[in-house]
Amino acid sequence: MVPLNLRAGSVRDIPKEFWTPESLSVIASTVGHPIKLDKLTETKKQREFRRACVEEDAKSELPDKVSVLIDEDYTIQVKFEYNWVPVKCKNCLVFGHIINTCSMVDLSITHKDIKHQE
Ligand SMILES: [Zn+2]
Hints:
DUF4283 domain-containing protein, 5 strands, At4g02000-like, 118 residues, 5-stranded antiparallel β-sheet, binds zinc ion, 3 helices, 2 domains
């Protein structure tokens, strides 16, 4: 689960109906499966950015922004900021370890390597 801040380029550009839990869920779903939106988001008290918790898809990279088409008329950029990102192995795409400690890395030693060390 990844805590996520969603920040738009300019708050003035955003229609007030934009920051609903429904539309935030749609935007957050580009990162992963939305688990919850924080209470400030739900009550719309916070103006600078919105928060969401998403369950990240281990098989994909975390995006840093997404373009959102508003009313099929104009596009705004919503930036994603991550307060914390879980450790993920780039080799086997499993959370909890890094590639240096990955048991799935194939070791490859050739005769050339062995001769070089003599
Ligand atoms: Zn691994």
